[in-house]
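JOB MANIFEST
job_type = single_chain_structure
chain_count = 1
residues = 121
[input]
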Amino acid sequence: QVQLVESGGGLVQAGGSLRLSCAASGSIFGISWMGWYRQAPGKQRELVATIYTNGGSTNYADSVKGRFTISRDNAQNTVDLQMSGLKPEDTAVYYCNAYMKSFSQQWREYWGQGTQVTVSS
């Protein structure tokens, strides 16, 4: 069984920083990319950032460019999201996301359980 487990998040004042971490565990054959999505109340889930295993190329939503940094440790199967200059509009549930293959299943997307980030003004 393959799963993603997030940690971090919480309450922070505007302008502050938070770091989210996500670890993939289980019978992992391979990981293509890992990333973060978020969903604010009443809104659709949106991409925040992704990072690829090979080459480490990254992709960011325009709204977080220059403020958030995604990184990963391929050996540990982890991905982090360093968030700085947080704004109230960053308030959302943040979900870890990965495209992985286990030894018993084909390549597919996996989701973490989500972690709340709240930015007060």
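[summary]
The mean pLDDT is 96.
DSSP finds no helices and eleven strands in the chain.
exit_status = 0
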